[in-house]
Amino acid sequence: MDLEREFDRVVAADHRVEPRDWMPxxxxxxxIRQIAQHAHSEIIGMQPExxxxxxxxxxxRKAILLAKVQDEAGHGLYLYAAAETLGADRAELTEKLxxxxxxxSSIFNYPTLTFADVGVIGWLVDGAAIxxxxxxxxxxxxxxxxxxxxxxxxxxxHQRQGYELLMTMMGGTKQQRDLxxxxxxxxxxxxxxxxxxxxxxxxxxxxxxHWRIKRHTNDELRQRFVDMSVPQAxxxxxxxPDPKLVWNDERGHYDFGEIDWAExxxxxxxxxxxxxxxxxxRRQAHEDGAWVREAAAAYAxxxxxxxxx
Length: 309
Ligand SMILES: [Fe+2]
Ligand SMILES: [Fe+2]
Prior knowledge:
Aromatic_CoA_ox/epox, phenylacetyl-CoA 1,2-epoxidase activity
């Protein structure tokens, strides 16, 4: 009882819960699930864009894209490490990902058809990720909050490089401008889905807000993203594929059309355009890396026995 009261006090005072502190089992398991899903998303998210590294149109674009994709690997690492502070086993988390028992963000199950997709992913997908992650810098679990501070700094570079790429393409030929608009048309709705189901159907939101794991509801963050993106689209010279997108003076926000939730659930449940391909690729990469894990373990064992001797 005392421990629980202390935990509640720490959370209510906006202090951080640290790995050695007592915490409710539900808090721990909710965090492990959320952080693991987040880590998996970073790692799977390397694939759609990694696909374009060898086909980048210039040395400069290649260097930028390489740096961005490597950042995502780093984000995955910080997050798996944060999950380990809660007692999760990293090998087990990977196993859950490649066996399909744990999810990752459904956005990465869509294909990247042209190089304009690299720009639109940076602008919209990393942009939506920033909206989700900035409030997580103040989440109640210390290691998660601290990882997010670093991640968010890198995410803003990701968004800038995407927007800058699109600006360049929009200043190019008609064909280039068409590629950008086509990519925007394909990524806009899936980006809105990144904030998760509507509040009325989001089962975990209330408890997570109480524990201050979550700071804003899905719909609040989605609205913030829409409001932020519309002026950026105007400046860029593209439109979003939504005839109902219009400024509402009374609300002080943009209204927007109904999201296709049937599509969202279909992709979440594994039936998106690239789900099978993404997981198969990750499984193959894990198997290909087995020798590295074995070598690292053998090296550690050797160093250990030397130290003992
Ligand atoms: Fe990331
Ligand atoms: Fe990113």
